[in-house]
Write a structure and sequence with these properties.
The chain is mostly helical. The chain is built from 8 helices and 3 strands; from the N terminus they run αααααβββααα. Bound molecules: manganese (III) ion (MN3).
Length: 195
Amino acid sequence: MFELPKLDYKNDALSPIMSEQTLDLHHGKHHQTYITNLNNFIKDTELEKLTLEDIIKKTSSDRNKSGIFNNASQHWNHNLFWKCMKPNGGGKIPAKLEKKINIAFGNVVKFKEEFINAGVTQFGSGWCWLSLHNDKLVISKTPNAENPLIHGMKPLLGCDVWEHSYYLDYKNKRPVYLENFFDKLVNWDFVESNL
Ligand code: MN3
């Protein structure tokens, strides 16, 4: 049985960048629903004994298991997403991570541009990511529940661009949400710790 993880901050602690109402719904309702669905799907099946990562990898290419995959992957994605934020986040990127960013993207400004562009250009629901692939940093975007794990990458930073993540606070302005996420919410120490 999977359970909703507690947040490391209060639901009003990211306000006004991400409001208490958004976190109440996004964490308390949306994320909880993925977990409830996942638990119902795997109850009394062979998947019940597997880790979340193994469930994701095992179901990702099986069309008949897309319901399980979607809910398992969304549970994983949100676990990472909550950790990627903190009150008064953003700011200077720690040295070890910055060095790898400079190697991969040239500089932090270009990295920010590319990351936000990935999120803006994800058509419909999905995610944008910074991942490690063969020891190199890569930016990518994925539709719906999909995550870079199934492409052999290790996600370090993920941003939810489903409308439930920003619509109450930013309405249709996804680029503004992404810019605020990057500048004021990201917990860069956590992102670096995933290296
Ligand atoms: Mn979400």
